Amino acid sequence: MNHNRQYTLEAARFMREHDRFLVLSHVNPDGDATGSALGVVLILEQLGKDYVVVNEGETPSKFHFLPRFDRLRNLSKQPLDEKFGAVIAVDCADESRMGDVRSLFGSEALLLNIDHHPTNDGFGTVNLIRTDAAATAEILFEVAEELGVAFNEELALCIYTGLLTDTGGFRYSNTSPRVMEIASRLLSYGVKPGEVAERCLEEITFAHVKILRRALQNLQLSHQNLVATITVSIADFAETGAEREDAGGLVNYCRNIEGVEVGVSFVESEPGVVKVSMRARDRVDVSVIAKQLGGGGHAKAAGCTIRGSLPEVKQKVSLVLEEAVGVKTDE
Ligand code: 5GP
Ligand code: MN
Questions:
Q1: Is the CB of 119 within 6 Å of ligand 1?
Q2: Mean pLDDT in the chain?
Q3: Residue whose CA is closest, atom 13 of ligand 1?
Q4: Which residue is closest in CA terms to ligand 1's atom 6?
Q5: Model pTM?
Q6: What is the position in ligand 1's atom list of the atom closest to the CA of 277?
Q7: Are 278 and 302 in contact (CB under 8 A)?
Q8: Is the pLDDT of residue 26 over 80?
Q9: Best mutation site among 30, 94, 275, 285 for ligand 1, i.e. most ligand atoms within 8 A of its Cβ?
Q10: Whose alpha carbon is nearest atom 7 of ligand 1?
Q11: Which terminus in the chain has less CB density within 10 A, N or C?
Q12: Ligand 1 atom nearest residue 295's Cα
């Protein structure tokens, strides 16, 4: 049997076999994480299963249009006094990406790990990891087909959102014929592409514009103009009234500059903690760099979180970049 098919079958069996599930995605969830988690929830509902869907923190409010968004529990604000025996983790490249939600696992918990990151280390009991998939949502589509659940507009919307956001609006190089095929099927179930794109990709908050204005002021080129970096400090958040989720997407301005091979954003999420996002053009595999720094991701989009002050973290990343792009920081 085809390798992928075998794991898809195992994932389907996992969902059929258990009755109550803990469903989770990764910390700082994006469109694929949220769409896939809520897609799992809709599939479980169709199978007549019970579930709790949890994230360590807040899910960006821009995804509120997704079905069952109000069922997403923010563990930091709504603690839960239950241990789960069956867990489904989506879009989590490694165990640490599940964050504090791991405290809800029973000692014998069985875990279904559905993901598409090449850096995934197979931390589940059942691992459905397909690095050829553009999004975790693409894999979920196959699982739903295997289970024979009905593709209504709600489920289609969740899966479409994952595909749309992880392909950057069907623009990145992971936009395969299969992605377009699945997207076309999802549209036939009633998804309105203009509305989803408006909510996920077009609409921005004014706070985002305020952060962007500051970030562009400090955008810097280094490594013979092969690297572009942008920085957001705690002070930027405090002075603009922006939230963490308002700082998304800044790294693309760096990578999009002509001639730049690697774009990097440094976002100080709390004092002494810096979230690093990296985007590559052609020559560099940023998942390797992120992994060296304790994170992970894809060849063209990866990230990590590093402890230290902004200057310390920037220096650390800069040195790793020297090796990756083959030139010194300030040349
Ligand atoms: P972003 O920079 O948008 O947060 O993430 C880009 C990609 O890298 C995503 O696929 C994301 O899942 C992955 N990624 C970001 N941060 C981390 C991290 O700390 N660890 C791992 N393993 N992957 C990460
Ligand atoms: Mn993803």
A1: yes
A2: 96
A3: 297
A4: 302
A5: 0.95
A6: 2
A7: yes
A8: yes
A9: 30
A10: 302
A11: N
A12: 20
Q: Does any ligand 1 atom lie closer than 6 A to the CB of residue 298?
A: yes
Q: State the ligand closest to the CA atom of 135.
A: 2
pLDDT confidence bin for 4, thresholds 50/70/90: confident
Q: Give the pLDDT confidence of 129-170 residue by residue, as tens digits.
A: 999 999 999 999 999 999 999 999 999 999 999 999 999 999
Distance CA 140, CA 127 (A): 13
Contact present, 53 and 83 (Cβ < 8 Å): no
Contacts 24+ apart (CB under 8 A), 119-123: 119/93, 119/94, 119/287, 119/290, 119/291, 119/296, 119/297, 119/302, 120/92, 120/93, 120/94, 120/296, 121/94, 121/95, 123/94, 123/95
Distance of CA 304 to the CA centre of its chain: 12
221 Cβ neighbours under 8 A, 6+ residues apart: 227, 228, 257, 260
**3-class SS of residue 117:** coil
Distance 84 CA to ligand 1 centre (A): 26
Residue 1 in this model has a pLDDT that exceeds 70: no
Distance of CA 115 from the midpoint of ligand 1 (Å): 12
Indicate the top mutation candidate among 25, 26, 262 to test ligand 1's pocket, ranked by most ligand atoms within 8 A of CB.
Answer: 26
DSSP string, 266-322: EEEEETTEEEEEEEE-SS--HHHHHHHTT-EE-SSEEEEEEES-HHHHHHHHHHHHH
What residue type is assigned to position 67 of the chain?
P
| 248 CB near ligand 1 (under 6 Å) | no
- Residue 132's alpha-carbon distances to 62, 139, 157, in angstroms, are 28, 10, 22
Q: How far apart are CA 243 and CA 60, in angstroms?
A: 10
Tokens of 101: 């939600």
> Tens of pLDDT along 61-119?
999 999 999 999 999 999 999 999 999 999 999 999 999 999 999 999 999 999 999 99
Separation of alpha carbons 25 and 82, rounded Å: 18
Who's near 69: CB < 8 A, 6+ residues apart? 34, 38, 59, 63
Query: 133 CB under 6 A from ligand 1?
Result: no
